[in-house]
Amino acid sequence: MSADVEPSDDEIVETAADAAEGVIFAHYSQSAVRDMDVTVTFEDGVLDVDVYLNAPDDDVDPETVADEAALAARDAVDGLFAATESSSE
Fold first, then answer.
1. How far is it, in rounded angstroms, from Cα 22 to Cα 70?
2. Percentage of the chain surpassing pLDDT 90?
3. From CA 28, how far away is CA 88, in angstroms rounded?
4. Strands 46-54 and 35-43: what pairing?
5. CB count in 10 Å sphere of residue 19
6. What would the 3-class secondary structure string for the chain be?
7. Closest CA to 49 of 12, 79, 22
8. What is the pTM of this model?
9. CA distance linking residue 29 with residue 61, whole number of Å
C-alpha cells in the first residue's frame, strides 16, 4: 500500500459521527434522549464536530456528555489516520 492512501472524507465523517453517537448512547438509552444532533464536517483537512444533546440531567450533565462525544469523535478520526499510516508502512 502506498503512503499517500488516506481515508475518504465520507469515511472520516462516518467514523466521527459513529464515535460521538456511541458515547451518547453509552450514557443514555435511545428513549431517554429527547433530541440530539451530531454534525461532522471534514473540509480541507479540518475536522469540525458539533454535538447538541437534549437529555435528562438526572445522573450526568448532558453538556458534559456532548463534550465527551465530540472529543471521542476527534479521537476516533485520529485513530483512523494512525491505522492508515501504520498499514502503509
1. 11
2. 83
3. 38
4. antiparallel
5. 23
6. CCCCCCCCHHHHHHHHHHHHHHHHHHHCCHHHCCEEEEEEEEECCEEEEEEEEECCCCCCCHHHHHHHHHHHHHHHHHHHHHHHHHHCC
7. 12
8. 0.89
9. 15
